[in-house]
Write a structure and sequence with these properties.
42% strand, globular, 162 residues, 18% helix, alpha+beta
């Protein structure tokens, strides 16, 4: 990383925290991501950025579909650790947390999430360390009134202090 860039400065962006899910050959997978945002309203499109080498990214690239679960402030660190700090190649990600299937057949969280979106990939861009997927929203549901978990809130209130 460039010595002129303080990592703490990047935490000041007001993005959220999400579980990105995908499935291939009967295997469900998911990961934590902090870069998902609406990029168009007609048709409704979301963009999500996923780290290269991530199994969920590979599955989305292969299948062309993904779901987003918008995490809430009551999200426990155990959920972030489970989805974000181990590979789906080694661990089955979903049995530990309540989830349902959307119309596209993919899982989304039903607890610690206030909304879900299903998307079909329309564009893919290699950004070096990450892949940007732009997906057309095919389904979206509000799940609760709980406030969304921002990345800043995660760092201040959920992530354990060392």
């Amino acid at each position: 990383m460039n010595d002129n860039i303080q990592p703490e400065a990047m935490f000041k962006f007001s993005y959220g925290l999400y579980v990105l899910s995908a499935s291939c050959d009967g295997k469900d997978n998911g990961c934590i991501c902090n870069t998902c945002f609406q990029v168009a309203s007609s048709p409704m499109r979301l963009a999500v950025s996923v780290q290269q080498g991530n199994l969920t990214r590979e599955i989305i690239e292969k299948t062309g579909v993904f779901n987003i679960s918008v995490l809430t402030q009551d999200t426990p660190f155990a959920l972030v650790r489970h989805f974000g700090m181990q590979s789906g190649a080694d661990v089955d990600k979903f049995p530990s947390f309540p989830a349902e299937r959307s119309e596209n057949g993919l899982l989304y969280l039903t607890r610690h999430a206030n909304a879900m979106f299903s998307c079909r990939v329309r564009e893919t861009k290699n950004l070096g360390s990450h892949t940007l997927f732009i997906g057309e929203v095919t389904e979206g549901r509000a799940l609760s009134q709980s406030p969304s978990c921002t990345y800043d809130y995660y760092h201040k209130a959920i992530k354990p202090k060392n």
